[in-house]
Amino acid sequence: MSEEILINVTPPETRVAVVENGVVQEIIIERAERCGLVGNIYKGRICRVLPGMQAAFVDIGLERAAFLHASDIIGTPGESRGDQIHELVREGDMIVVQVVKDPLGTKGARLTTNISIASRYLVCMPAVSTTGVSQKIEDEDERRRLREILLRYVEAHQGEGGFIARTAAEAVSEEALEKDMAFLAKLWRGIKERCTHVNQIGLVHDDLALALRALRDLVTPEVERIRIDSRAMVDKAVSFATKYIPEIQGRIEYYQGERPLFDLYGVEEEIRKALQRKVSLKSGGHLVIDQTEAMTTIDVNTGAFVGHRNLEETIFKTNLEAAQAICRQLRLRNLGGIIIIDFIDMTEDEHKRQVLRALEKCLARDHAKTHITEVSSLGLVEMTRKRTRESLEHVLCEPCPCCGGRGSIKTAETTCYEIFREILRESRQFEVETLLVLASQEVVDRLLDEESAHLAELEEFIGRPIRLQAEALYTQEQYDVVLI
Fold first, then answer.
1. Model pTM?
2. Reported confidence tier of residue 300, pLDDT bands at 50, 70, 90
3. Which one, 145, 170, 362, 484, has least CB within 10 Å?
4. Alpha carbon distance 327, 363 (integer Å)
5. Is the model more confident about 75 or about 448?
């Protein structure tokens, strides 16, 4: 599989796209005014303890207080502590925490005291002394080799924490791994020292910028080249790679073509499509994707695809194609949390099994952790995808000022009838000579055309003239009845 990573850098934002076989699979956007917080370490103060939720709110210097659950609090080694939140922390306590989820919507950041620091090959966890190996490394001999290397280092350097070997550690030499562990241990000592000397809330250690994180986390052996359109960022990337990931240094390229990098690969068009509800399938079927605060729903439809053999075969082929498209859309849009997929109903159990396996196979390439259930009695597939940052839609869009995020607005007819009721209400309460209705052009046009007879009847009933005035800035739902 041919894979490329594209990095578009401008002063206000950095954008990263992962392209596999010429198809955009993933887009990550980070803006200078709203950088991602995941991985950042803060010194904070407990501002509120909630025993009923087994959680606490922590002031770490952000706009909203961050959330810390009792299950995310790790005690000092050898210290006997309870598992109730009021036994673990008290209001006013200073505490060192790490962000595991960015603020999402109205929710503050999610925190943990189980600090972890990532490098190219390893994750260091200073609070524990255990070792582990990424589940994506399947070869048992390689898993055993990595575990033995980590155990030897942890036993020889007691008190420096535990380590987890990342997927990139597969087939890496013992010398390179030990060098990585020594670097992480040194980095943690520096962070711990800063935490000791800082007595106020605020940032203690921030993670790498998006472009450098992409080099650390997204580059796999399949990545043939990394194209960056900023000379300054290329210099930083080469310097970073030379120091920490020398094997990828030769794959970094400076793109200086006249055509914008994201236009060349069709990324801008993919971003535009990723903000739409409907996703067309090659066969003629389509997906309908709806994001809500509670969950994301995905509906599969045959659309214009009528098949060639029989109905069951048509449904099966559409569902198989949809499974691949859904996995791509989850990564592209960065959809997380609970996801409900409504595949077209299949009668054969073998078809259900194959669709589910196809979904699992495609999700295996996803960097985010996923969990899938079997097809339910209602024909639904329930799954979860770990969410650490905002979805693409939430980064790029805001609720519509006309509908407030509902996705629909009242018809001009509905607004006209609301105006009639308001006129009746006002005419009974106040003695006025004339009533002036301010509304959008569409509503005024309807009042003068389809509703003109009703408007004339209302004028006769209240015994006062009604004047109309179109306001260009009013939405179809807005109106005012002015008493003159």
1. 0.81
2. very high
3. 484
4. 6
5. 448
Closest residue by Cα to residue 411 from 389, 443, 387: 443
- Annotate 137-165 with three-state secondary structure: CCCHHHHHHHHHHHHHHHHHCCCCCEEEE
Structure tokens at 484: 């003159």
Q: How far is C-alpha 243 from the geometric centre of its chain's CA atoms?
A: 30
SS3 string, 290-358, reads EECCCEEEEEEECCCCCCCCCHHHHHHHHHHHHHHHHHHHHHHHCCCEEEEEECCCCCCHHHHHHHHHH
Is 114 within 8 Å of 123 (Cβ atoms)? no
Q: Are 419 and 481 in contact (CB under 8 A)?
A: yes
Geometric angle at alpha carbon 259, from 254 and 261, rounded to 5°: 50
Q: Specify which residues 227 forms β-bridges with.
A: 6, 253
Contact 191, 183 (CB under 8 A): no
**CA gyration radius, the chain:** 29
Instruction: Order the strands of the 286-291 sheet from edge to edge.
Output: 278-280, 286-291, 295-301, 337-342, 380-385, 370-375
